[in-house]
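Problem: given the chain below (326 residues), write out its structure.
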Amino acid sequence: MNKVQIPNTELRVSQIGLGSALFGSAVSKDDAFRLMDRYADLGGNMIDTAEVYANWLPDVETSVSEKTIGEWMKERGNRNRLVVTTKGAHPRMDTMHIPRLSKAEIREDLEGSLRRLQVEAIDLYWLHRDDASREAGEIIETMNDFVREGKIRYFGCSNWTAERMREAQAYAAERGLQGFVANQMMWSLAAVDKAQLSDPTLVPMDGEMYRLHLESKLAAVPYSSQAQGLFSKWEKGTYDEQDERIAPQYRSGENVARWKRSRRLAAELSLSVNQIVLGYLISQPFPTIPIVGPNNVEQLLDSMSAAEVRLTPEQLAYLEEGEETG
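Solution.
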């Protein structure tokens, strides 16, 4: 699989990242090991996890996803072949309205992740949420302290607005400090109705964020890159923008139209709809590494088959707006 260089780093990551939110919980440890083995066999080297995965589930071991990945890396002896990445600084699940971005809170999460992943340093550490009441510069200083301590190599942000990212990046640039090297946002071919999100702290891609990535070439690492399998579900049965099986943020006539256009383009290019969905992200004019969340090997293989898909700017515009391609 092709590797993507994350700008301003020494990190080369596989074109598609593997999501692990349910590893060790809804996806058993044995099944998670099989998925990670197959992903690595296919050339994948970045497994996306977080301190909070899957703490929202009842009767599940705390931070079990990280523990599962750490056990797998130890058993396989493959840490040096992977880009180890995780996220911290997420609010506690029962107090989502209270941010956790103090240096002590970030340190608590970071050092816990190091223990669970069984590594000495994390290659790419993500701040899972923001705290708009804190100066972005304070947070940048904190993260550079952790770099100097050798606990992390690089850091990124997730669910930060474009305005806050610009503030943080400007502070870092003015002082010669390391800034964010990548951004994780909710982004897929499916349009998101932010007003319908059950978690208001999630931040989808928008026009201003897209301009930031376009101007700076900051790497994008989208989660929900397949919109919870939206278009694939519609491919397998009837479709209805008000279908209650579909997450509310995706229930729209616009997404039905995008699905129909993706079907037409898939037929024209002899690809699957899922390959078009992921190809849409991979083909952007800045480094983009979508995260996929398969529950079985079949789904993994289907997603990984999109790694080589490249669409033209005209095809991207067609998928978004319906303008005819040449």
